[in-house]
Amino acid sequence: MKRRFSGDLKAPASARSFVIGQLEAALAGHAEAWTGDVVLVVSELVTNSVRAGAGHIDVDLRADARRVDLKVADDAPGWPTPRTAAYDDLDGRGLAIVDELAHRWTTSPGNPGKSVTATWFRAGS
Fold it and tell me: What are phi and psi of 27, to 5 degrees?
């Protein structure tokens, strides 16, 4: 399921709510195994899009019992670049969080903008 959000300060919270609802609908009672990591990752990616100046942000979530795919696409200029945040930095950890929590993640160019796709696999799949 895909949903478009305006690139404003409400977008991260709205995207989190959307993802929670979609996981619960798709996984009927088994969403708790995925929810925490997926919600944190969508929050980080949408926040990055807002900070980059996106006019709109598309969140696409595909989930079944074996796998969850989360794609966040925006129309903002620039490319997501991981960086190392100092201990007392207030930002710079978003992609490190994605890297730590997702089993796999990729970036793709858009026209305009770009997308980041994060994937999780159920153990044994």
Answer: -110, 5
Residue 34's contacts (CB-CB under 8 Å, 6 or more residues apart) are 23, 27, 63, 68, 120
**pLDDT value for 124:** 60
- CA–CA separation, 41 and 94 (whole Å): 8
Fold of 2-121: Heat Shock Protein 90 (3.30.565)
Domain residue limits, the chain? 2-121
**pLDDT tens profile 6-19:** 999 999 999 999 99
